Amino acid sequence: MKKLSARRRHPLAALVVLLLALACTGGLYAAFAPASKAQADESAQSLTIEEGKKLYSVGCASCHGTGGQGTSDGPSLVGVGAASVDFQVGTGRMPAATSQGPQVPKKKNIYTQAEIDQLAAYIASLGAGPAIPTEDQYSPEGADIAKGGELFRTNCAQCHNFTGKGGALTHGKYAPSLEGVSEKHIYEAMQTGPQNMPSFPDTTLSEKNKKDIIAYLDAVNSEKTESPGGLELGGLGPVSEGLFGWIFGLGGLIAVAVWVAARTAKAKKS
Fold this sequence. Notes:
By secondary structure, this protein is an all-alpha fold. It is built from twelve helices and two strands; from the N terminus they run H-H-H-H-H-H-H-H-H-E-E-H-H-H.
């Protein structure tokens, strides 16, 4: 007992006991603790990227290259981000038709949203870029419609028309109509600048600015919204209004002139 008591009073005894306790605690935790959420998320993300790579190899690699580096038939996808994939594939613009015109049009989508997410995850893994926005980012709830209209007329109306009806550009290109386009895709288009459109990152148009623009488009394109000026002629602006005036205004004047001339000729014969 005296020997045991002496060992317990040894200067290093407390340190040895502490180290043994820590080793036992760590071993028990490693043996019985569940896998961390971070590891599970990483595994799920890796699986998503792998599935996306398979879809990419079948539907995209022939134009954009086996590693997304781009070819003569398609640009590089390194750094375009998940938002660009979600927009292009979600609107059916990609994969593009074999014979392309001056602009890739919107068409029926051939992928499910789950497959689009997998493709987006793979492309995002090639290089950093804009991420797919959350609903909180693009939801117009609580946004300033008047401010959105001001921003839209300043930055977008030159191509899309002041109510988003679309318009013609040069060399057969065009700005598509924004009627019926989902709020998420409008946000992604502003973030990524697809085709002829310039990009508007958060440094140019803040997240709130984008929400305001989306709210404005929702308001002007809503079926419940009535035009305060009456017949809006499709909302196409001075082009359609001038055409209306030319056809019906000038046509009416010609009709009146013919009628007056006919009455005059008849009077002279009498």
